[in-house]
Design a protein that fits this description.
The protein is mostly helical. It folds into two domains: about 5-85, DNA polymerase, domain 1 (Orthogonal Bundle); about 115-300, hpI Integrase, Chain A (Orthogonal Bundle). The protein has 14 helices and three strands. The protein has helices spanning about 5-15, 20-40, 50-65, 70-85, 115-130, 135-145, 150-165, 170-175, 205-215, 235-250, 260-270, 275-285, 290, 300-315; strands at about 180, 185-190, 195-200. It has a three-stranded antiparallel sheet with strand order 1-2-3. Helix 2 crosses helix 4 (about 70-85), helix 6 (about 135-145) crosses helix 9 (about 205-215) and helix 7 (about 150-165) packs parallel to helix 11 (about 260-270). The protein is elongated and about 65 Å long. It starts with a helix and ends with a helix.
Length: about 325
């Protein structure tokens, strides 16, 4: 079997047997195409050895100029494929066996919004739909029917992302049948087709979600996706990103805001409010708690507040 055939067969296995999400399949396709170009499609998979993998690693860094996260993802995908080939007895042993190809990732702080940025973002979204004061069912239904539809969708997107910490792909793929508004629970299918539940923690968010579901029934065009476009089709991840970016621009935030920054914000706020990291791990759908530990780094604002409070006590005790 050559490299091209192996990549094609593995992608079929991922789609049919592993039932990976379209997002994961796209990523795997890109990663394997990169290796196929480098190793050449006609190369026998049995000829792929450690020296070739090391040359590929150098190629990704030095020729392609990819960042550590991108290189690590490409190698991880390749490692899974060769493990599958080994289990399928297409090759005797994976070339990754005992290969030291660990990539040290730079430690980065979570890109979360400040409390002021969140307030400005939410205030702008509320003003766009003409909503003020406490959100009641009557108010929510009225604005959902009469306001600019993209503005209403933007408000729902912001509120749901900030209280659940969902990935943008998870929000885009959320279906009406995933919602239980009596229990205020949403069933999510995350990475690796793993199911988990997230919660709408307050009455106002649940009311807004309920109103949106009610008024979008007539607009919906033969699908069950919760979020839709003004034309009635399913809202894609790119559409959601555009809504968030536009809202941040209108709120006059100085930086480009993405849905993933809202995920970071939700996680950071939970940690800072004393929620157990294991609960946050479960809410975010992290397989490893080490990923969740990224959010335990205190924000500058929290650090400043703590130091200011301590300084005040020390002065008072003089």
């Amino acid at each position: 079997m050559n490299v091209a055939r192996a990549c094609a067969d593995f992608l079929t296995h991922c789609r049919v047997a592993k039932n990976l999400s379209p997002h994961s399949l796209r990523a795997y396709t890109i990663d394997l195409a990169e290796f196929e170009r480098f190793a050449e499609p006609g190369t026998r998979v049995s000829a792929v050895d450690r020296p070739l993998l090391r040359r590929y690693l150098s190629h990704l860094f030095e020729v392609r100029g990819l960042k550590e996260t991108s290189v690590k993802r490409r190698l991880a995908c390749l490692k899974v494929m060769f493990r599958w080939l080994e289990l399928d007895e297409t090759i005797e042993i994976s070339p990754f066996h005992r290969l030291d190809a660990r990539i040290r990732l730079p430690k980065r702080l979570p890109r979360n919004l400040t409390d002021d940025e969140v307030r400005r973002l939410r205030r702008t979204a509320l003003e766009r739909v003409g909503l003020s004061g406490r959100v009641t069912e009557t108010k929510a239904l009225r604005i959902a029917r009469r306001a600019d539809f993209d503005a209403v969708t933007t408000l729902v997107v912001l509120e749901v992302l900030l209280c659940t910490g969902l990935r943008v792909g998870e929000l885009a793929s959320m279906r009406l049948s995933d919602l239980d508004l009596i229990e205020r629970v949403v069933t999510i299918v995350g990475k690796g087709s793993r199911q988990r539940r997230v919660f709408l923690p307050d009455d106002e968010t649940a009311t807004l979600v309920s109103a949106y579901r009610t008024v979008t029934v007539e607009r919906r065009k033969g699908h069950e996706h919760f979020l839709i476009t003004a034309q009635g089709g399913p809202a894609s991840t790119q559409h959601i990103r555009t809504l968030v970016r536009t809202a941040a621009t209108e709120a006059e935030l100085s930086r480009r805001v993405t849905p993933h920054m809202l995920r970071h914000t939700a996680a950071t706020r939970l940690i800072e409010n004393g929620v157990d990291i294991r609960f946050v791990q479960r809410l975010l759908g992290h397989q490893s708690i080490s990923t969740t530990e990224l959010y335990t780094t205190v924000t500058d604002a929290s650090l400043k507040a703590a130091i200011t409070k301590a300084a005040g006590r020390m002065k008072a005790g003089r």
